[in-house]
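queue> pop job 88
queue> type: inverse folding (structure -> sequence)
queue> payload:
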């Protein structure tokens, strides 16, 4: 079956569709020996697709949830030898992180080899809900909670969120805009510093009692919620 080249790459699990587009634009993809172009269609069963020097092959789809510890980079490798999340994963299938968590942020991180699945979670247009627990440097004022829930403008973009107090300095925040460092920027705008941040849920799929540094396979019902 013919489909867009970037989709075909993503479906093999090599990377997300967005990353595939970047690779095509920079000349790192060849189809049947010719340098590929954005917009071309391919048949992954017949055409020979070479990405960064490797021919693509279909892999069994893998969907993982990791409770990311503090101090790990959300990347597949690091040229400076710093710790990264794939060091915690021991699977025969190659996977990549879905989106990012800051080095000092902990909690639920999804990993997969399904590019289409990853794209639906990462792309802002799908408005995937993500819930965080933030510990602030000071007690949050009730009026500031109201400001968050009313919607805020950050860098010219409206950010809708739902926040509720969990303790004097603890706030649970649910966002779906997809803005980089969204939660930290919300509180910074209001004059607070986030001392600790933990992501507990993505689109109704919860971290539960998964221990920090451990991972598990998602069950079918969780995959459906996220797809």
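queue> result:
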């Amino acid at each position: 079956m013919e489909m867009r080249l970037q989709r075909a790459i993503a479906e093999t699990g090599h990377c997300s569709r967005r990353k595939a587009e970047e690779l095509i634009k920079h000349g790192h993809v060849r189809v049947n020996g010719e340098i590929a172009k954005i917009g071309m269609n391919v048949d992954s069963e017949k055409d020979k697709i070479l990405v960064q020097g490797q021919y693509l092959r279909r892999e069994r789809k893998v969907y993982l949830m990791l409770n990311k510890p503090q101090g790990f980079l959300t990347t597949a490798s690091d040229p400076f030898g710093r710790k990264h999340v794939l060091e915690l994963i021991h699977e025969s299938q190659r996977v990549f992180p879905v989106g990012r968590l800051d080095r000092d942020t902990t909690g639920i991180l999804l990993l997969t080899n399904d590019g289409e699945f990853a794209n639906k979670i990462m792309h802002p247009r799908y408005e995937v809900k993500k819930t965080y627990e933030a510990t602030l440097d000071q007690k949050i004022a009730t009026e500031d909670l109201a400001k968050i829930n009313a919607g805020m403008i950050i860098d010219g973009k409206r950010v809708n969120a739902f926040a509720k107090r969990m303790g004097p300095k603890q706030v649970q925040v649910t966002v779906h805009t997809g803005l980089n460092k969204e939660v930290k920027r919300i509180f910074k705008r209001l004059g607070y510093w986030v001392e600790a941040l933990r992501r507990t849920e993505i689109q109704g799929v919860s971290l539960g009692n998964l221990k920090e540094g451990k991972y598990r396979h998602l069950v079918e019902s969780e995959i459906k919620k996220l797809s």
